[in-house]
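Today's session is about reading a structure prediction critically. Students often jump straight to the picture, but the first step is always the sequence itself: look for stretches that repeat, for charged clusters, for runs of hydrophobic residues. Only then move on to the predicted structure, which in these notes is written as discrete structure tokens rather than atom positions. Here is the chain we will use throughout the hour.
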Amino acid sequence: MRIFQVIFMTLALLAGLFTVQTSTAAAQSAFGGGTAHIAAQLDSESDNPAPGKGTTIAFAMAPEQGWHGYWENPGDAGLGMTVDWTLPKGVSVGPLRYPVPETLLISGLMNHVYEGPYAVLADLKVAPDIAPGTRLPVRAKAQWLACTDKVCVPESGELTLDLIAGDGSVAPTERTRFDGWRTHLPRPLGSEATYALKDGKLRLSVPFPASAQASEVHLFALAEGLLRYAAPQTVTRDGDRLLVETDAGEGSRNGAVQAVLRTGDHVGFLLTARSGEVASASGGGGQWSAILAALGGAILGGLLLNIMPCVFPILGIKAMKLAKAGGDERSVRREALAYTLGVILTCLALGGLLLALRTAGSAVGWAFQLQDSRIILALLLLVTAIAFNLAGLFELRAYGGGEGLVGKGGVAGSFWTGALVAFVATPCTGPFMAAAMGAALLLPLPAALAVFAGLGLGLALPFLLLAYIPALRNRLPKPGGWMGRFQKILAIPMFLTALGLVWLLGQQRGVWGMTIGLSAALLLALLLWWLGGRQRIGKGGGLIAAIVGSALLGGAAIALPTSAPIAAEQNGEIVRFDVQKLGELRAANKPVFLYFTADWCLTCKANEAAAIDRAETRAAFEKAGVSVMVGDWTNADPAITRFLEGQGRSGVPLYLWYAPGKEAQTLPQLLTPATLTALVP
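Below is the predicted structure for this chain, in token form.
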């Protein structure tokens, strides 16, 4: 046993001897007295497990505030749960399945822990020859360690379940509770990783698509000796793989090892790694290479954003402002710097908020704010106002001595124009951005923020170049009547952007949401038409318009539906996985090809590109009337998890063929077009 664990457990036992409380419970300290600091309860998903099948059981653990329990490999110190079972004849229990843990570093020791409520699951199997109605008493004596950052107490519990063999029915509340626990279990990755030990370093290459999201990446070894737990882990994204490098452990390894790779808050993958060559990241340089590549991609992506319909009109207005500025170099450069500062600070704010949300456990990506229909509505009204301003319906005048937001001068006006450009640009995604933003989510915080700042720099670069290179500015057309016509032309892409936002609102909140958005935009147009009429006769009304516009936005946001529309069951020839729908198709004697995939499964994507999404496969299936059903397990859908377990599988890919009137035929995990077309006559 590791020396740290010996010392740690000795202190824990001594601390436990002096822990005295006066309450009795099923779970208590290992010394027989006191209420447990981690309450434990043994639950069953079904109280009537079916013979020949069984059910899932769970140790539901609830630590007190400030206390934590341990993963199966506790790290440098601690102890996982052990269970002694007393089971009736014909009943067996599989191995314990732990959720993805958290890391806790105390005095240089790395602990793999759970600081909030968690559940350890296991599969209970009932023999086929058990008669329905048979009582199945399940008894478990569990032992675990409860700790704070200063003290540890060994605890135990005599936990019981009284089940009756039956039909396997599950109450909806229990289904929901167990499904929630299942989402925190590590999912099998489906592709083997490779590791190499050299010069005291462990390098691990994990197949992981570049499009799949990952944050807070950490490698948890299931066995001792593979790595040094407290050592920093460097994670680099290199195309369709993740490279993890850290200090190797003391044990020598040359065979297969298992580990859990965390890719989010209590989200991760169970992987198997075999010893082999691990190539360096493309271009060399390790993490610095990844940082420079992400930074370059962000700058280039930001630069290309300037030609997008949501950005180019505003940039055009600023360019016309430069054309009017003539030779006032100092004023032009000051405004360019203010504009750049507004762009970069807004990108940093959005990037920082994105990283904070992901740290808090939200699975969000760039343009995450567009997941909120209220933000889309606000953008729709903002873009509509800009479009009508460019079209000449009204003027955006100065308030309080400041300058207008778009088309006006001044440092303050330029700064807020830059902020507006960065915020309005988020609905647009240009080339090179996806890889750069994906890499930023894996980099250390300073490097990630540098990537977001690089995006802002690229977005502001054309205006900076025009301001600081007089030769470029001198090539701009001279001021004249063309500027008014050009401004009205720039309104067209802004109106197109507004239409795109209306469509996005409809995708999120259905026809009713789209109707509310269009109605709000129409009312805003009428308000701006009224304001423009007053401006043309020399009267004000801007403050009134601002107040009414804000009220319009607030009222429309409240009126928006609170939930997304029900997704269509069928999209062309592809049917979304649903157990009931599958039963209906089979009852109608229709052939069904059912496959399960995930965005992070390289094997899945390779099969889809090479065999499933092929013209010959689609033609053969269409001719034979085959229904293609897809189960997307990217976000660990509990219904798919249950179905996979029912098929004796724990991960994807899984390909099933249901011929009319027959049971499922499991297809190989590597597909070819010939494999699929041979299924139909």
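Discussion point for the tutorial: The chain has four domains: 3-183, 193-282, 287-559, 570-677.
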